[in-house]
Amino acid sequence: MMKLRLFPAERMGTDFPWMSWAIGWLAMLKALLWLAYEPVMPEEILRLLGFKYLLAAIPLIVCGVGLWNRGRWAAWGLLVLAAADLIFLLFVPQSFSACLVDSEVQIFSVMLSGIMLICAGPAGDVLILLSAVVMFRETRRENRG
Fold first, then answer.
1. What is the pLDDT along the chain (145 residues), one digit of tens a residue?
2. Which pTM value belongs to this model?
3. Can you tell me the distance from the alpha carbon of 31 to that of 120, in angstroms, rounded to the nearest whole number?
């Protein structure tokens, strides 16, 4: 059985695959960023989004750490979670507006909306899906260290 370390030292080495490092952090941000932001939306949609984020938070953190430990299971988990998030968006398209930040200062709206779209929205899910080939190339099966 593979020992799972929260912050493996080799992830900071220059030979560690940068995409695995970045996708691991993206998973962490997707899991935790929603705690700091509450969009202005109808209560029913907010409640639904809250349940979605609560259900996905622990698996995202575990898979992000697992990817840093180069576990293939973590790559599969992140792909499934990203696909599920995009499917959720298809069934509840109103949830897309939760990623858009409204501010009186236009540049803040654009910057913060971009951050939310990448870190907690569909753009981040697409990035995870696009990185599938690299994640599988840089991970290993549990029995074949």
1. 456 666 676 766 777 888 888 999 999 999 998 888 777 788 888 888 889 989 999 999 999 999 988 899 999 999 999 999 999 999 999 888 888 888 788 898 899 889 889 988 899 999 999 999 999 998 876 534 4
2. 0.84
3. 8
Tell which residue, 58, 29, 20, 53, has the closest CA to residue 134.
Answer: 20
CA angle 18, 117, 100 (to 5 degrees): 160
